[in-house]
Amino acid sequence: MSVHFFEKPPKWLKFITPGLTWSLPNHDKIIYLTFDDGPDVKATPYVLDVLNEFKAKASFFVVGEMAEKNVKLLKRMASSGHFIGNHTYKHLNGWKTPAQVYLRDILKCQQFIDKMVPASPIKLFRPPYGRLTKAQMRGLKKDYKIILCEKISGDFQPKLDFPRALRSLYETQAGDIVLFHDSIKCYKNLEILLPKFLAFFSARGYTFETLNID
Ligand SMILES: [Zn+2]
After folding, report:
1. How far is the CA of 174 from the centre of ligand 1 (A)?
2. Residues having C-beta closer than 5 Å to ion ligand 1
3. Which terminal residue of the chain has fewer beta carbons within 10 Å of its beta carbon, N or C?
């Protein structure tokens, strides 16, 4: 469902797009885990259990139509102390969607989230495929903080080179926003990557927190 556009965001891109958040550098050894494309009946309960095992909190960027199908899981995310962000209602590609249609779709997703779980004063949005036009960005900025990521797990790759993926993941630094997917398509890779990632950084004194911060 999701192939994200940037392997790693180039520095110049960060420079010209100040409205976007890629990481939140800190001295407290905090890592920000994010999960896109759920909730999914198989992947999401697995992620919630593993996070719980490591006392880790995370941010889930849910797809509205998935959330409607899996309301119980959406509620479980919230009641477990995780943050629920918006990933559009229909997993739209911003580059292929007129701004008004795109913004309406995001609003539809947000309204559903806010109806089902206690509404947060801070609203977070992550564009599917990392693709967003300037007009869409302008339309979103008033109501949402736009969250991208510094580290991509690669869990969406059908033939993932695990040693390489793990080497890259283990280079994660304090403040990095890390992207995983709680989708059925990524489940097999996630099952291998996520517990290893959590164990590696827990053993080194890192904690995992949500992104609903000012
Ligand atoms: Zn996605």
Report:
1. 24
2. 2, 36-37, 128
3. C
Whole-number Å distance between alpha carbons of 103 and 146? 13
Whether 82 sits among the annotated catalytic residues: the reply is no
| Model pTM score | 0.92
Q: Residue 168 sits in which domain range?
A: 21-208
Q: Which entry of 82, 176, 181, 182 is annotated as an active-site residue?
A: 181
84 alpha carbon – ligand 1 mean position (Å): 14
Two tokens, residue 93: 């590609």
Pairing assessment for the beta strands 58-62 and 30-36 based on DSSP bridges:
parallel
- Indicate the number of domains in the chain: 1
Measured CA to CA, the distance from residue 148 to residue 66 in angstroms comes to 21
Burial (CB count within 10 angstroms: exposed 0-12, middle 13-18, buried 19+), residue 51: buried
Per-residue pLDDT of 31-70, as tens digits, reads 999 999 999 999 999 999 999 999 999 999 999 999 999 9
